[in-house]
Amino acid sequence: MAILERRLDGDFYEILKRIEKGILEGSISATLEHSSDFYGVRTRCSVRVFERYSWIGRNRVSLSITLFQDERGDIYLSAITSGGSTACFFKINTVGEEALLDKLQELVPNNKE
Prior knowledge:
Elements: E1 3-8, H1 12-25, E2 31-39, E3 44-54, E4 59-69, E5 75-83, H2 95-107
Antiparallel strand pairs: 1-5, 2-3, 3-4, 4-5
Helix pairs in contact: 1-2
């Protein structure tokens, strides 16, 4: 399991659109499994769960993304990968998870802080 957390600059919807498009176009086997959106008066939260096949690991890996904008307009990203291991009791061969997270890092702007 790998994690990426960032505070971002930009437009919430543009960042979300860039992430969705980039992940789906970044792999022939990538799919958007589910999505959920919540809105408050001055807040927004979008959750996306992607999956793709890892040719190296010969398994499917998932990427769960939460994009949140608070009442001040600050945008936060939390992304967690899962799957990608063929072992029964411990994690080995996490190359597929790391590659998926690397793709996301290419898509999001640098940390705001």
